[in-house]
Amino acid sequence: MSTRYTYGCSFTDYHWDTWADHMGKNFDKFVNYGQIGAGNQYILHKLAESHAINEITVNNTVAIMWSSTNRYDNLYKGKWDTRGPFFNSGRPKELLDMIDPVGFEIRDCAFIHAAKTILDSIGCRYVFFSLDDIYPHDPFEETI
Description:
This protein is an alpha/beta fold. The chain is built from three helices and six strands; from the N terminus they run E-H-E-H-E-E-E-H-E. The strands form two sheets. The protein has a four-stranded parallel sheet with strand order 2-1-3-6. A two-stranded antiparallel ribbon has the order 4-5. Strand 4 and strand 5 form a beta hairpin. Helix 2 packs parallel to helix 3. The radius of gyration is 16 Å and the shape is globular. The relative contact order is 0.20.
């Protein structure tokens, strides 16, 4: 039985059908871990959870729609807090002094590498898409 697993943000799971829903129709089983507002931190953690419980096998197919790098996700009281882009997420303004867009991009490149490593270790088929340019900034350019 073939299963498609998808991970991403609202482009992956929304109030109406997304690319994931349409692709999922081509498989016997479809599991969608997309979440509105999710960033790449959430995406990697959900994939790691699937891997930890041996949910994905060599016979499955995984599709990940990586989100924009300017997002920050965290688990709070047992629920993922996924508010979308950091700069208009309603988070305290004091946090702006603690973030760096280039740092987010470097962080997310590590997330993508970790996801590839996980999926390669399983040996399943997978494809990565991107909502946005993953590395739009020159790392040597001053930001903020």
